[in-house]
Amino acid sequence: MAETPKINRRSANITEGVARAPNRSMYYGMGYQPTDFGKPMIGVANAHSTITPCNSGLQRLADAAVEGLRAAGANPQVFGTPTISDGMAMGTEGMKYSLVSREVIADCVETCVGGQWMDGVLVIGGCDKNMPGGMMGMLRANVPAIYVYGGTILPGRYKGEDLNIVSVFEAVGQYSAGRMSDEDFREIERRAIPGSGSCGGMYTANTMSSAFEALGMSLPYSSTMANVEDEKLESTRESARVLVEAIRRDLKPRDIVTRESIENAVSVIMATGGSTNAVLHFLAIAHAAGVDWSIDDFERVRRRVPVICDLKPSGKYLAIDLHRAGGIPQVMKLLLNAGLLHGDCMTITGRTLAETLADVPDAPRADQDVIRPVDAPIYAEGHLAILRGNLATEGAVAKITGLKNPAITGPARVFDDEQSALEAIMAGRIRAGDVMVLRYLGPRGGPGMPEMLAPTGALIGQGLGESVGLITDGRFSGGTWGMVVGHVAPEAAAGGTIALVQEGDRITIDARRLLLELHVSDEELVRRRAAWTAPPPRYTRGVLAKFAFNASSASSGAVLDRFERGG
């Protein structure tokens, strides 16, 4: 029989006094017994959905979490959170809802935990925005909490090659350029997604799950497990047990998520070659945690942490390969031994990071090449760089590794929406040396800062990934690579310089000098700014209108609650 956890004021609030009888009566209607009111009531935020393979395998994890909580002497209370499939929404109007869903998920978790006065919460998610949204909600509620990642997908296979969702986007470009047969195109489309789980490379979902493990808010090894494998069920049950123990200790998210633990998470993002979206999301997570963390901190970490994992999109392997090679604990042990992690950070298990990694080998296995030693990295410095210049006075984000030529100066090809840009690529109107400018796609202008995987995938498929530059105030998929710069801030809709670019202007992207520059005189920019007027909002009602009205700059995470009075 499991020991009954220590009860805090939340559960006691249900048990004490005659005045609480109506509250208890509602619970009796759900089958509770008098003894249940002495147990902690723990929320299970279940993002199961048949909308996307990323989330279609989550129900069995939610069931395992319920079993684990009951076995540990707690009462689970299940509630739902929504999801938007980035892969399915990509290139459509629906993509504008993706970043919005991060805020909706955070609101769901905070609202249910606060409204039902829960003792703790276990959040389960799969698709990209499930992770940051869930973490932000956990930090706002600040009751003991743990994150359970739904797990990565196994690779598809065709003609002896592993496939994943990005294979399909790149195949579109190859097919349109006449470099792929009808049969191969159809087979890649059909075989790329073999079942449930989140997109398989070190794209946004696996980047955020890995970072949460490094942050100390998920169990060791849990971030790279495959959704369909049984170890994911066992890890979920163990997560439930660990959460109940955290309630006994009153160990809360803001005790764990500190400036030092965020630095650990960002160090792992750099070491694994993670998604540019991690910049946006960790700015928002830090804001929810009340931690001082700025866009310039990413550049500081980048300069000292090497890339040691050979992972897609720019590398060779998938997240499941990383798992089999030792997972995030092996990566962290190498970084810890090199003095690149804070080993004294607390984790949800009640152990420090150093204690958690004590039994992990000091060196990666010799029979794998997914994880490299720190002294023999793939790249000596991290890959997520913060570029500045007159086009991005608040900063912009670029992946700068894996490029043969990290600098380009060329004529601007200007587009005010994604669809016209994609049409130009597919029609062959974009040439080597061009710099595409995709604007009015930021947090306010999009609204919702949609991802540009369709245009970047098409460029790569046509063989232009390293010879055409692309800048945008929107975002990129974690599956994007190439000469691309996103999160340009201030955005066009806020009057940023990107709004003033004209067709044919010369633009420089220089990853070596961390420069994003428009070669137009200050006097000419003043003239253009005086003639510029902000476009009317694309939406005046509903959730997209609310997001456009409230969203902060991408340079501060595109959050909705960054108010003048509170920063």
Number of domains: 2
* Broad shape: globular
Sheet with most strands: 8 strands, mixed
Low-confidence stretches: 1-5
Residues in helices, as a percent range: 25-40%
Radius of gyration from CA coordinates:
24 Å
Number of DSSP strand runs: 14
- Which strand order do you get reading across the main beta sheet? 7-8-12-11-10-9-13-14
Structural class: alpha/beta
**Average predicted confidence as pLDDT:** 93
Assembly type of the chains comes to single chain
What is the helix tally? 22
Query: End-to-end span in angstroms?
Result: 48 Å
Beta percentage is: 5-15%
What would you note in describing this structure?
By secondary structure, this protein is α/β, with parallel strands linked by helices. It folds into two domains: 9-154 and 195-356, no CATH class; 384-556, IlvD/EDD C-terminal domain-like (Glucose Oxidase, domain 1), CATH 3.50.30.80. 39% of the residues lie in helices and 13% in strands. It contains 22 helices and 14 strands. It has helices at residues 9-15, 21-28, 53-56, 59-71, 86-89, 96-115, 130-141, 165-176, 182-191, 204-215, 230-249, 253-256, 259-272, 277-289, 295-302, 319-324, 327-337, 353-356, 418-426, 453-461, 522-531, 542-550, and strands at 41-46, 75-80, 120-125, 145-149, 156-158, 161-163, 384-389, 392-399, 407-415, 435-438, 469-472, 484-489, 506-510, 515-518. The protein has an eight-stranded mixed sheet. A four-stranded parallel sheet has the order 2-1-3-4, with helices on both faces. A two-stranded antiparallel sheet has the order 5-6. Helix 4 (59-71) crosses helix 11 (230-249), helix 13 (259-272) crosses helix 17 (327-337) and helix 19 (418-426) runs parallel beside helix 20 (453-461). The chain is globular and about 75 Å long. Mean pLDDT is 93; it is low at 1-5.
